[in-house]
Amino acid sequence: MADLLLIHGSCHGAWCWRELIPALAARGHGARAIDLPGHGDGRDPASVTLAETAEAVRAASTPRTIVLGHSWGGFPISAAAELDPGAMRGLIYLCAYVPKDGMSLIGMRKAGPQQTLGGATVKNAAETAYSFRAETAPELFYHDCLPEAVADALEHICPQPIRPQDTPIALGKNSASVPKAYIRCTGDRVIPPEYQAQMAAGLPPAMVHDFNTSHSPFFADPEGLAALITQIVKDL
Question: What is the reported pTM?
């Protein structure tokens, strides 16, 4: 079946895919995940760049790999495709940002129809990273997830380097040439579902799928997500 590389979103890590990976394996797929630079590795957040984040994704891919990015993960997977479109078979955006050339993640978030993260984050003293507030994260990210999954997530979420998310991305014909699919989470309280639909509007309609969960489908319904990914990879 498919070789899948799973890329996490802000403040998360490879740990967030722990339930989805076995669900994909049960369907015959090879699935793996990486921690992006600056996530749990003790680095100074100010030293982390979008370029090296993209390179980490590219280096972990092979020409037969389908790379799935969650949330902010849509940026590094797109940048990796621009670096080397032959390094991957296709991209899947999971309730993720589909970047626009010349825009940063922060710019795209601010351009959205709603600002959902007001009061939900706190910056470090140097203002080089932010974290999610434990008191607001459950209702924003995990409102339909099991309590044990929420508790575990709150123990593992880590600071997110700001610099990569404040860097405009450069995209062109390389990334445009890579086949893409989008999974829109209709119960998402972080990236408004209508904004997800807007960002996915440039993709073929058959490659855009709705999934009725929160912003954390890998916890809310890993089996259903694995089944949908299995359907998608047949068409990429």
Answer: 0.97
